[in-house]
Amino acid sequence: MNPTPRPRTLRRAMASTAAVLAAVGSLGLVNATGAAAATPSGPPSGTCNPAVDTVWHDILNTQIEAVVTDFSAVNVTPGTTGQRHETLTRVNTVTTTVNRNTEISASASFLFFKVSATVGFSVQTTTSSTTTTTASTTWNINQPGYYGLYRGTRKVSGEWVEYTCARAGNIGFWVNTTPNGKGTYTTFEYPEEGTVSCASPEPAGTLRYAARQRLGC
Q1: d(Cα 33, Cα 28) in Å, to the nearest integer?
Q2: Which of 20, 75, 82, 181 has its CA 20 to 30 A from that of 121?
């Protein structure tokens, strides 16, 4: 039995789509690195509406690291407890970057909104650095001991891609327009301040644990 022939209109549509994709590929817009498996999601479909859709950011991976940015170790002896004003020493810096560029454009800031949704907490979305203010705070310590006064954050870094809706006649197709096929980003959570001591253990991987390590406990 002969197979049922496809309607000519369907064959013409498939041929037109194949020609468009071939043309897009010839412009160097399709990522042909063979690393598609590294992309966790991508745009919701291969086609798009050029009159409505603009760009689509996708997060390839994320790394989260607790970073102590300012620190001071104090030895509180009996009779010296209570309020004390301390200025911490800067020991590390975290800065927002996109493709290693510290100037964050309005369009690139949308990338960081996607990062926030991915990691589950708010991160900086504009040009920012942990060096913008001095860590100088009044602390209330009511027990003698060896303490670490700290300020720090969770640094988030990784790789991303940007897809642009490219028009092909009346149809649009999402194409990867990221330089070199993928880019890099760095941002950080809003800073946290606190006190740690050798007398109290802290969960590994947390910012408080990183601060306690600086005490040499």
Answers
A1: 11
A2: 181
Ranges of the chain with pLDDT below 50: 1-40
How many residues are listed for the chain in this entry?
A: 217
Q: Give the whole-angstrom CA distance, residue 157 versus residue 101.
A: 13
pTM of the model: 0.74
- Domain assignment present for 159: yes
Q: How many domains does the chain have?
A: 1
Return d(Cα 112, Cα 99) in angstroms, integer. Answer: 13
In a domain, 135, yes or no: yes
Nearest to 156 by CA among 68, 91, 61: 61
Q: Which residue type occupies 58?
A: D
Q: Is 139 domain-assigned?
A: yes
Type of residue found at 94: V
